[in-house]
Specification:
single chain
């Protein structure tokens, strides 16, 4: 493996980037780091305004383009509220809305509640 000589200047950032990737055995683009950073900011609950300021985005559409992976975070949040609660939320015989009457509730009683 070729050793890095710190006394010699680097020709360009691109040369340094490619050499670092080769040494690490990675295949990715420099731009992938931008997507990763913006996604991590979004998943850490940073506000959209904060993400846009850090990334230099002028439009919300551009921010959404870069943080497309946030979909997994959105899905996890929805799954968390959709999970069955460990304890009943409502007491027995308490209805969430007037159209959700207990079994045997008459049509007349439903109509009177509307």
């Amino acid at each position: 493996m070729k050793r890095i000589d710190p006394s010699r200047p680097i020709r360009s950032w691109r040369t340094a980037w490619r050499a670092a990737l080769k040494r690490a055995g990675l295949r990715l683009r420099f731009h992938d780091l931008r997507h990763t950073c913006i996604t991590k900011l979004g998943e850490s609950q940073a506000s959209d305004q904060t993400i846009m300021a850090i990334a230099g985005h002028l439009s919300r559409k551009m921010m959404e383009h870069y943080s497309h992976i946030r979909m997994a975070a959105k899905r996890a949040a929805l799954d968390a509220i959709a999970a069955q609660p460990s304890q009943p939320v409502f007491e027995a015989d308490v209805n969430q809305n007037v159209n959700q009457l207990p079994a045997g509730g008459s049509r007349a009683s439903r109509k009177s509640l509307n």
